[in-house]
Design a protein that fits this description.
The chain is mainly β and about 120 residues long. The chain has no helices and 11 strands. The protein starts with a strand and ends with a strand.
Length: about 120
Amino acid sequence: VQLQACGGGLVQAGGSLRLSCAASGRTVNDYVMGWFRQAPGKEREFVAAINWSGSNTYYEDSVRGRFTISRDNAKNTVYLQMNSLKPEDTAVYYCAATGVGSYYRVNDYNYWGQGTQVTVSS
């Protein structure tokens, strides 16, 4: 599975961005898909995840209510809509896929995209 993330950029605080992650190589329709982020000098952290059908979503506390994860299995793509962005959201954002394990643990994800930079200015 190859994952290609895009949609990052520079935005002012309070603004919005929509990240996309397209999968290729095989379908990820039966995978949990997640978004993680890593700020300079910090460990990679969980942001959001969605189960295979889209019926269950999970969020890190600081983004709940501001970010929305969704997926389109027909397009083999997962999205992260980010609203009310804050400077502390600045990081490289990665999409990932897992067939087993937890939805929030970095080490449980089997496949990773290359990351897309999100920078929020104050």
